[in-house]
Amino acid sequence: MTHYILRRLLIALPSLLGISVILFTVLALAPGDPFEDLANNPNVPPEVRMALRAQFGLDDPIWQRYFYWLANMIKGDWGFSFVSRIDVDTLIMQRLPVTIAVIGASQLLALLIALPVGVLAAVKPYSWFDRIASTLAFIGFSLPTFFTGVLFILFFSIYLGWLPFVFRADIPGSGWPWLWEHVRQSIMPVTVLGVFQAASWMRYVRSSVLDVIRLDYVNTARSKGLSERVVINKHVVRNAMIPVVTLIALQLPQLFGGAIVTEQIFRIPGIGSLLIDAILRSDMPVIMAVTFVLSVLVILFNLLADIIYGWLDPRISYR
Amino acid sequence: MAPARLGKAVASVSPGVEAWRRFKRHRLAYMSLFVLGAMVLAVLIGPLIYKVGINDIDFKARLAAPSAGHLMGTDDLGRDILARVLYGGRISLAVGLAAMLMAITVGVIIGAVAGMARGWVDAALMWVTDLFLSLPQLPLLLLLMVLFRDPLKAAFGLEVGIFLLIVLVIGGFRWMPVARLVRAQFFSLREKEFVEAARALGASTSRQVVRHILPNSLGPVIVAATIDVAAAIIAESTLSFLGLGFPPDVPTWGRILYDGRDYMDLAAHWALFPGLLIFATVLTINFIGDGLRDALDPRRVL
Asked: Is A232 in a helix, a strand, or coil?
């Protein structure tokens, strides 16, 4: 097992390098210049600007800059944000927890909706419950997150006035009221993301359970006299989850996209809004680091999916 | 299955007719076809009939709710939202179609080459495909939009430049599933007897691909293409919604929604109508894709 994980990590390395080369090349072609402001500032002589450019290595050839960046990245030096005037890793560490909390909670919500609904729909295919659930799922994943977010704000914040629509990271106070405020402001973003995910996952769960439930071993389990509940929970669902795990892992890059949009709608100070700010102000080190961190997360979660397979399906051997 | 078919008095019908018959059984898909058709017609000929300019400013009716004069109300400058939505629909649909065409073309070519060549070419192409699949798409989309906006604007003019950029960028990130699909189809089809027969008759590789393998692998590709149109429309709206798509004076659906978002307490209709249109378009396209999936898969029993 350890051997397998190590080997997978080794396979992931060239992909990570490939991604970093693509990102770096795209960024190096960028017309934006982090010292552009200085060019328009009469108090800063051009020599100073040139010296700054040379100091940060902006005049070197691209490949040289890439290896310089790679070496620093491995050493743990992620660069310096020209705009925010702090180290990139501190900046990312400030923003990452909020994003992970919102994404994590929404994934949990999606799982809690998709798993039972998908299984129930597949156990009685083409029943009323199945039809309603499938149609709702179709509607759910045709609703773009930015529109659901707008609808939620319109209904719950403006019309009913129940929930705040601007996310605040610096809520004063402590204890239960503080926690309650955090939960209250997270309800809308988490629901928007979670419902969207749940809609597509429910379809995966349903079709996968439908594939498994007709197999012979399920009939065997039934004829042994096991209760329907045990058959479904222990025999069907566990095997049906195998393809679902792959699909969920493959969808992760899209999830980060959804998170960026949600953070933008509800003004959540997470990594997505950091990225958009950085892009708009051409703050290259931050853009590079954030996109790279997102890619690493995607690859890590794919690895995690492979490990979960082995747990779900002992037939898969890790060699 | 075959004996049952023979027993029926069904005259042999062409696969197209048979597919259409099966498609019509999917009631939601069939209905969606008409709804989508009506929307496409409205967008195409609407501006010819509804003669309100997209930039006509009516200061007397700023942020006006929907009324007989302005069927979908007006925005903060008193511009008619119906006119803007009709105009924006053309762009949104055009972006969706063009990005889909690009994604399908690239995907089919890469999948076909990988499926026919096998060996190291296949391995290399699939590595690239997997690499693209694990790229964080939206961040890169945003980045490319910002980086190449100005050069393309300078080269092709404002609207055409941004249009090209959006289509290239969205299409460039959506070909991977198609490539995998086509490759898998090629792997199974190239070993089938009818292809072997063609090979035995001396058909060249390109003839085998174009005449025999490709037409038989198109079913799933058509389904993927339909769903790609919806995905591309969402992607374009997302870019516009984040303020990084078309410029403010080009009213695509996503852009109108983005502009209207800040006035939701005063004029909810401004954000609601474009949002509803995006939703309706995407929903009907997805339903049609679902219907096509049923119709084009001959193994599926309806």
From this structure: helix
